[in-house]
Amino acid sequence: MPIFVTRVSSCRSKLRDCCVSRHVDTIVGVKNYSKIISSRLLSMKSYHLTGTGDKSSTIITTDTKHTIRTDIPVYMGGNDSAPQPVEYLLASFIGCTQATALFVGRHMKPRILIRKMEFDIVGTRDDHGVLDNVPISSKSEFPKVPARVTSVDGSITVFASDRKGAAVKIGDDLLKLLEQHTEQRCPVANMFLASGCAINVMWKDGYRNSTENI
After folding, report:
1. d(CA 140, CA 178)
2. Phi-psi label, residue 113: left if phi above 0, alpha if psi -120 to 50, beta otherwise
3. Sheet of 57-62: strands edge to edge?
4. Which of 53, 68, 94, 201 would you call most buried, defined as having the most Cβ atoms within 10 angstroms of its Cβ?
5. H or E stretch including 49?
6. Least confident of 7-16, 90-99, 170-179, 198-207
7. Helices 172-185 + 85-107 axis angle, to 10
8. Which of 154, 69, 167 is nearest to 115 (CA)?
């Protein structure tokens, strides 16, 4: 009988320890999960814009207190008072690529110190994606051709320097690494790629075109 009582007591002790251990693991797991969720929420970046449209043009204000104006050419029914929306889209690609490339270059090993970048970019889309199947009614089908920009072509020339400001050669391998990581990390380029848009942009080392000091 005493042996039986001892065994039961031992089992109860092990069960209690097991429950406590699982409870602790659960608390730790919840805390870790909360940290992950909090980290993801903190890493999410949002952009808030407000705008007003008047006929073919718009005036847009950003949360960073900048004003953007858009319009379309006269032959499309506009006044040509500002760049077209798609031109801003391509300008965003250029600006985002510049900013992202500087970030990537600073964090590469060996580091690339980018002095400047020169862009020559052409975006292409098929106008049938907008103009087909009109007039539009409840029975109308959507155009068979996508309205989006289908390709971005051109060149990007990167000029790098050393810490003293002298122009330096980047090298093919490092330039390719810079290109690949910039395309994947740039929000605009990444969105282009996700949409199915082909990015056919040649990256060039500016040192090959100029050996002048900064």
Report:
1. 46
2. beta
3. 49-54, 57-62, 67-70
4. 201
5. strand 49-54
6. 7-16
7. 130
8. 167
Q: Give the global pTM.
A: 0.79
**CB distance 155 to 199 below 8 Å:** no
| Choice between 164 and 71, residue whose per-residue pLDDT is larger | 71
Integer CA distances (angstroms), 139 to 130, 133, 135, 146, 181, in order:
17, 10, 10, 19, 45
Q: At what angle do helices 172-185 and 187-195 cross, to 10 degrees?
A: 80
For residue 43, the model assigns a pLDDT of 83
- Copy the structure tokens of residue 89: 């889209």
Copy the structure tokens of residue 205.
Answer: 């080392």
How far CA 91 is from CA of 1, 75, 84, 184, in Å, comes to 86, 22, 11, 18
Say what the pLDDT of residue 8 is: 46
